[in-house]
Amino acid sequence: MLEFVIPCLLGLESLVGDEIRKLGLSDVRVENGRVLCRGEARDIARLNINLRCGARVMLVLGQFPARTFEELFQGTRAIAWEDYLPRDAAFPVKGYSIPS
Fold it and tell me: Taking the complete model, does pTM exceed 0.85, yes or no?
């Protein structure tokens, strides 16, 4: 089972959560500015096609606390990127925080 994050505009979280539940995905958790849920790889396309209020569907590859830039770097480095990207792939990193 994969974990997805669907960012959305503040105030639309419950609508996105309802849309996801109607699509039959499990473990739907509504948070400020995003909704998390679990599903299969085939659900990525279904979510992208059917969600009207969610911005996009992102796959959670790892989670870790990062109180410093070094912890962010080390946590990001520890993810098994070779499972997802070819050896010569470009890898831009952008970070943000909800809530900080």
Answer: no
